[in-house]
Design brief:
316 residues, Flavocytochrome C3, Chain A, domain 1, 3 domains, two-stranded antiparallel sheet, 4 strands, globular
């Protein structure tokens, strides 16, 4: 709408490079300016207010500055993962009876994200897919008794969950889940973020297992498991983040190309664009969980293009 739109990955890398070179703005020199003055002059204030009034009001409340007259200070932040649970065409996962809809599955994102894709996927899955597929799962269960909590499968699941959470509570270490979350985030941000290298990913895959081992030995969770305990809940989430982070780094190291938001510095064109390798990497990487994030089994689901064919992205 302003004549200079670029995908998130290109804009994010450009902002990060400026800050890394020491050209950042703001008190901490950790942002870049987003100047709307030319757009306001060309389109008029009313048009810009109509399109982005709510966003500008939010920014002014937070920053105390009027973005209509003063450039906004921005910097990219972690917002999403492109991946998710593998599903078939009915949105069923590999676990019988478990369906994944919206951003929880992998199916619609591709190698990059466009604005409002989360809304699109939620609407598409919720309105047009699940109403016609999940009924196939439920139909055979009609008029059958509902399993109770003494069902062997429920007892097993409950026991495993209790053992997991009691494990966090019984470590008795010195560091909070928040501390491990920050350390984990820094490693992922530095080595598996907007711009990746073989050396950085190998370093991440060396540091992450060591930090995960420390997490298991030095975690401190206050409170108990008999009532609502946000610290305990956070410990479980951070554990999941560790496993996802290690898998992301493994896959990023394996994929020796640049494609969408996966940008390897070694694989770029002279213009700084992503250099794909469609011959070797035109597939979805689907991993089977083995209990060890460093040993998950890779399955390659080949991508087939019938109507819209592969092409090189260009915004010139």
């Amino acid at each position: 709408s302003y004549g200079n739109l670029a995908p998130r990955d290109i804009s994010s890398r450009a902002a990060k490079r400026l800050v890394d070179k020491g050209h950042g703005v703001g008190p901490l020199k950790n942002g870049v300016n987003l100047d709307f003055s030319a757009a306001i002059e060309r389109l008029g204030l009313d048009v810009v207010q109509e399109r982005y009034g709510n966003l500008f009001q939010m920014y002014e409340r937070i920053a105390g500055e009027d973005p209509y007259s003063t450039p906004m200070r921005i910097y990219p932040a972690t917002h999403y993962t492109m991946g998710g649970l593998w599903v078939d065409y009915e949105l069923a996962t590999t676990i019988p009876g478990l369906y994944a809809a919206g951003e929880a599955n992998f199916s619609d994102h591709g190698a990059n994200r466009l604005g409002a894709s989360a809304l699109m996927q939620g609407l598409a899955d919720g309105y047009f897919v699940l109403p016609y597929t999940i009924s196939n799962e439920l139909a055979p269960m009609l008029n059958k008794p509902i399993p109770t909590t003494d069902h062997p499968a429920f007892v097993q699941a409950e026991t495993e969950a209790r053992d997991r959470f009691n494990g966090y509570l019984n470590v008795g270490g010195t560091r909070s889940p928040d501390w491990f979350h920050r350390e984990l985030g820094k490693i992922i941000w530095d080595y598996c973020g907007m711009e990746r290298t073989q050396q950085g990913l190998e370093k991440a895959l060396s540091e992450l297992p060591a930090l995960y081992s420390e997490f298991k030995k030095d975690l401190r969770v206050t409170g108990n498991g008999e009532s609502v305990n946000q610290t305990l809940e956070k410990a479980g989430r951070v554990d999941d983040f560790f496993q996802l982070g290690m898998l992301m780094c493994r896959d990023a190291l394996d994929r020796e190309e640049s494609c969408g938001a996966h940008f390897r510095s070694e694989y770029q064109t002279a213009e700084g664009e992503a250099l794909r390798d469609d011959k070797n990497y035109c597939h979805v990487s689907a991993y089977d969980w083995t209990g060890d994030p460093m040993a998950s089994e890779l399955n390659k689901e080949k991508l087939e293009f019938e109507t819209a064919h592969l092409a090189t992205r260009s915004y010139k």
